[in-house]
Amino acid sequence: MMKENSKQWMNKQIEFWKSRSKKQKIMAGGVLLLLIIAISITAYFATRTEMVPLYSDLAPSEIGTVKESLDTRKITYEIVDGGTTIMVPKESVDNLKVDLAAEGLPKSGNIDYSFFSQNAGFGMTDNEFNVLKLDAMQTELAELIKGIDGVKDAKVMINLPEKGIFVKEDGEKASASVVLNTENGYQFDERQIKSLYHLVSKSVPNLPTDNIVIMNQNFEYFDIKNNNSSISGNMMAQQMDVKKQIERDLQRQVQTMLGTLMGQDKVVVSVTADVDFTQENREENLVTPVDEEDMEGIAISAQRITETYTGNGAAAGGIPQAEDPADSLGGTYVEGANGNGDYERVEETINNEVNRIKKNIKESPYKIRDLGIQVMVEPPNSKDTDSLPQQRIDDITNVLSTIVRTSIDKSYQEELTDQDLEDKIAVSVQPFAGKVKFDEQSKPLIPWWVYVIGGILLLIIGILVFLMIRSRHNEVEEDDLSITEQEEKTVEDLEIAEIDTEESIRKKQLEKMAKEKPEEFAKLLRTWLTDE
């Protein structure tokens, strides 16, 4: 049955194709060919790996180092331009730049932006091209920085030195400023900060890390530690790092707490701390009684000696002695008289042990001696400072007072008065004029040509569906027409058959009447003749 149905369907399609006109056949073939071409183009662009420059102008040794790192990650790459430029897939270039920057690669060369020159039109001046290149560098660098954990958005401003007429041995250096929109409460480690500086430095020609400034939306600066500095091992540098870390941690905590209360872009916090780095080492030998109530130790050994004497002879006497023969108890004694008498001596010795405690104490060198917190709050209505109620300002002051009271070491200030806290806290309510606004709109991830091909495919599919529906409609009309004709023929045949049947019945009845009842048959004939 299935085979017969498929055969009927195939025959019907063949008949349908043969019934089409030449123009319709050409049109259907063109649509099919266009569909095949569109599918082929889509498959080509979908499966093609577009290679773009990762780094250019690298030394062969640097290319080899980057190549080893790419081999470890199993990334497809191409080395061109005589072994000075390395190409990678376009979808991987951003992540690779961030990851390799975290590893300190490359140590020479620059990130390549040559593919942006394709946007330059014919007749573009050098100044216009430099503006386009600078904008491309800033935009691309911001996109790279967004790939780092904890960064939601980034703004980059690059200042390139103008090229003079004369070549200088020590050319002017470029500079860069980066503003990050970071996630609330996220703390960057030293590796991530180093990656940021290295990425920015290698993205711009002739840009040292000393000319880079990185901060977040809360005006918190991210500094890089210079391991090559002559004071890197100095105690002073370490103390400054500890002081900055303490201030940064307190600032972040206060910023997060007040930002939750007022809004992250409504609060700016600054913290200054006075840290005592004095380190004290001391040894304590303490002796304490076991029984502190009776001030007695615990008996570990005891000795009792009893001596008695009775009889005649020289009377016992002498100087009483203590445990140490050199310690005299004073006086002499004589037992009895004339050599007659007796004496008794009892000696008891108990050795008590006490608690002997030896402490080696090393005081922490980081104690907060004094603390100051300055907070700027933008009112709900930036044009009206009175829109922030006084109760809210008092709440902020109370929170800051608690932080100051619990952060300062008790050894420096036993009890802080309200006046002391007021001197250490400042809350200012005023509008912000220097906030950095980040674009909320994101770039489309799908290229424009995908939409064009998709539209063409939809148009082709629509045309095919229309043709199929129209052909199906024509087939239905033809089937209905044939069914109608068949029904009409059937009705006519039935009517003819019905007429034939009535005449034959009458004929048989007349023949039977003529045979069986000739007289009645004759009367019937006369009646018919009379009627006529």
Automatic annotation (TrEMBL):
It is found in: Bacterial flagellum basal body; Cell membrane. The chain crosses the membrane at residues 448-469. This is Flagellar M-ring protein. Residues 47-221 form the Flagellar M-ring N-terminal domain. It comes from the Bacteria. Gene3D superfamilies: 3.30.300.30. One of its GO terms (biological process) is bacterial-type flagellum-dependent cell motility. It comes from Oikeobacillus pervagus. It holds the Pfam family YscJ_FliF. It is a multi-pass membrane protein.
